Amino acid sequence: MPLIEVDDVRREFRIRRKSGRLRRTVHTVAAVDGISFAIDAGEVVGYIGPNGAGKSTTIKMLTGILVPTAGTIRVAGLEPWRQRTTLARRMGVVFGQRTTLWWDLPLRDSFDLLRRIYRVPPDRYRANLDEFTETLGLAEFLDTPVRQLSLGQRMRGDIAASLLHDPEIVYLDEPTIGLDVVSKSALRAFLQRIHDERNITILLTTHDLTDIEQLSSRVMVIDHGRMVFDGRLAELRRIGGASRTLVVDLTEPRAPVRLAGATTVKVDGPRQWVTFPAESSAAPYVAALARDYPLADLAILEPSIEDVISRIYAEGIPPSP
Amino acid sequence: MRTTGERQRLGPLAAIAGRSFQRYATYRTATFAGLFTNAMFGVFVAYTFIALWSQKPHLGGYDRTDAVTFVWIAQALIMPVATWGGGFQADFSERIRSGDIAIDLYRPTGFIPWWLAVDLGRASFHFLGRSVPTIMVGALLFDLRMPATAATWLLVVLAAYLAVVVSFGIRFLVSLTAFWLLDSQGVEQVATILGMFCSGMILPLVVFPGLAGDLLRGAPWAAFIQVPADIWLGKRTGFAVARGVAFQVGWAVLLLGASYVALRRAEHKVVVQGG
Amino acid sequence: MVESIRAYVLLSGIWVRSTMAYRTSFVIMTVSQFAITFVDFVALLVMFSRVDQLGGFSLSEIALLYGTSSLALGVADLALGNIEHLGRRVRDGSFDQMLIRPVPALVSMCADRFALRRVGRVGQGALVLGWALLNAPVDWTAARVVMTMAMVLSATLIFASIFVLGGAIQFWSSDSAEVANAFTYGGNFLTQYPMAIYPAELVRGVTFLIPVAFVNWYPTLYLLDRPDPFGFPSVLRFLSPAVAVLVVAVTGLVWRTGLRRYRSTGS
């Protein structure tokens, strides 16, 4: 039996807009327009879509903050909005845009408060706190008030806070937003490890495909409130992005590089853009380049989620059941 | 005749006041809610005064109608004269705390005129949007004494604006303490209490007996409500009106002067110590 | 219920600790709270320097009314006053953060930014009430002692309910914080004075419509053993606890409805 079941859920918002001097029209906007999916315990699922697609609204319904306009949601057999406080004990939430911690308190005090609110057994608390302090590098700012933390530090604090009470499910709503590449990478590694150790169910929303690539093999794509894709990442790559791009910085300007199975599409001084089929691994191409050409630097460009989605529409692939 | 130089200076100040007026005009819901509060308290306080004056019908030289009218004048003036606080200093104190104030000190229009213009713009909106409706509600519910002549009305308006200036001076000085005190809350609280009590907002100053009454009537807060009310109710006529206005002007000049001095000290502190 | 109180104590506790860290500031603010709220009683004292009764009531009798109202409002404000910020939190989205915790929304709202300085109002209310209890012409019997305690408790519950109602209406109209305040602080001011000074229509309104008259007026008539100036039935003197329970029940309903509405329509 799946841990999370979402069945034909709709969520409408009424927007009042001024149409002229005194009149106001009311539009109904469906932020979520009939989505369905099921997530089993222990899965890591990426939930991806452009801005305003309905990701945050879905999370808010799953956590019980918002009531669906239509359809049903069951998490661990409970309806989130009806049994909010019961379910709250079994889940952790991280909002990328704002913290769930207490702004003026030192991080440590926020943790301690959560320990008491969630009634975490002292030994579990100690174990978790020690582990997170070490793996997330919290020691240096445990005693700093949250408002003085950098974005990256605060995010690490939020993630630790969401896991202190050993939740079964963790929802992460755009956790990597605003973070630099190094921090993003560290965060992903941490989540991977946590999942492997504790078999937590993770639902992660993002509009950065790289987040998903590293963490999960299952990805759901939402656009304008509709589920456009639900399946394996490799499949998404195949459908949505026919090719990925290697941005190659050679040590000196050269004639276009020649790689088996890849196409050099652009040359600008020492920099060259090389595309290759998206469902392939980048590794053999990188290896071939490194072997045959003097490389200064290298980057892999993913197709943007918008490109992926427009391709999905263009290809006419129906959404997964 | 105005020279071009003066016109140039007044122009931007008028614009500042106008912007401030507009800004406060956008707080529609807050204005209605505030009016509701004014009206409610106006009604309740009026009845307490009726009870008081029925015990002592000529207390402080007021009769019952004077007393009830005073209540509504006070309610009308609370917002514009900012007896409770409110007005420019919330922004002002915040700018001192954040350090943005340093930018303001170099504005071409002059620091104090700038903030005074902001406050007068705000007060003008409150006169129109709060004071007038409050008096109208009071007149609907109770039997009020209205100024008899147009001249009296004009003098009331003059006294009301002077009250705002005196109030500005006090609030400005209180806000400036943030430059020297880490936590100017204490000073602000004391100023609030004094403003509430000594302005006549709670009880007309004429009710206070003996020495206390005399002291209160000489203090700057008497300029807030008591003086405009005296003119409105016709308790000050002829030369007494001029004395009342002079009292307000005197305190305004004193407080603004003190403000300039304090500001110079504050600027010195900012420049020398870096805020 | 116990869980909720525990959560409230935990969440407000951090604010208390944080306030106490700035001891001087706390003292200044509390003392000024005391002074600001005491100003109303000072006004009464000034009035009584000129007269010796208002509406047929002496100073100590009025102090009984004043003290009860002030004390009750003070406690209600201390415990639940922060609910007035609901509108702002809904507007800036920070209310949602409270909903992910296993804590009732009302508890989260009221405990957040718990302002211990509000104990200043409680203090002056208690002082005035204490003075009144010692000086008012009450023929003390066991029943009257019980009535006094019931009065204070009921008054606190009624004011607490008005606070929560004032917060709940912000689910429908997020700018209405000041209107709500008009009722709490207006209700407080109204009940500082004997109802005898108000017109009968107003007293009817605060008896049967918005029952703040049960905060102190009717029980005090029993304590002082005075006839009702408006001729209302004397059973009203014993109804404060019942009214309090009713008001609390209605408030609970309105709050839950408002919260459901917020979660169903979003913002």
Biggest sheet of chain A, strands in spatial order? 5-6-7-3-8-9
Oligomeric state of this protein? heterotrimer
User: How many DSSP-defined strands of chain A?
Assistant: 13
Class based on secondary structure composition and strand pairing of chain A: alpha/beta
**What is the H/E order of chain A?**
EEEHEHEHHHEHEHEEHEEEHEH
Biggest beta sheet attributes of chain A: 6 strands, mixed
Q: Give the % helix of chain A.
A: 25-40%
Structural category of chain C is mainly alpha
Shape of chain A: globular
Structural descriptors:
heterotrimer; B: 275 residues; mainly alpha; 75% helix; globular; C: 267 residues; 12 helices
Describe this structure in words.
The complex is a heterotrimer of chains A (321), B (275) and C (267). Chain A is α/β, with parallel strands linked by helices. Chain A has a 6-stranded mixed beta sheet, with helices on both faces. Chain A has helices spanning 55-62, 84-88, 107-117, 122-136, 151-163, 181-198, 209-215, 233-240, 283-292, 305-315; strands at residues 4-18, 24-39, 44-48, 70-75, 91-95, 169-173, 201-206, 218-223, 226-232, 243-250, 263-268, 271-277, 295-301. Chain A starts with a strand and ends in a 6-residue tail after the last helix. Chain A is globular and about 65 Å long. The longest helix of chain A has 18 residues, at 181-198. Chain B is 75% helix and 0% strand. The relative contact order of chain B is 0.13. The model of chain B is unreliable at 1-8 (pLDDT under 50). Chain C is globular. The chains are: A alpha/beta (321), B mainly alpha (275), C mainly alpha (267). Chains in contact: A-C, B-C.
Report a brief summary of the structure.
The complex is a heterotrimer of chains A (321), B (275) and C (267). By secondary structure, chain A is of the alpha/beta class. Chain A has helices at 55-62, 84-88, 107-117, 122-136, 151-163, 181-198, 209-215, 233-240, 283-292, 305-315; strands at 4-18, 24-39, 44-48, 70-75, 91-95, 169-173, 201-206, 218-223, 226-232, 243-250, 263-268, 271-277, 295-301.
List the helices and strands and how they pair.
The complex is a heterotrimer of chains A (321), B (275) and C (267).
Chain A: E1 4-18, E2 24-39, E3 44-48, H1 55-62, E4 70-75, H2 84-88, E5 91-95, H3 107-117, H4 122-136, H5 151-163, E6 169-173, H6 181-198, E7 201-206, H7 209-215, E8 218-223, E9 226-232, H8 233-240, E10 243-250, E11 263-268, E12 271-277, H9 283-292, E13 295-301, H10 305-315
Parallel strand pairs in A: 3-7, 3-8, 5-6, 6-7
Antiparallel strand pairs in A: 1-2, 1-4, 8-9, 10-12, 10-13, 11-12
Helix pairs in contact in A: 4-5, 8-10
Chain B: H1 4-25, H2 28-55, H3 64-81, H4 89-98, H5 101-104, H6 111-141, H7 150-176, H8 185-198, H9 210-218, H10 226-233, H11 239-273
Chain C: H1 2-21, H2 23-48, H3 59-80, H4 86-92, H5 94-99, H6 105-111, H7 119-135, H8 142-168, H9 177-192, H10 200-209, H11 213-224, H12 240-265
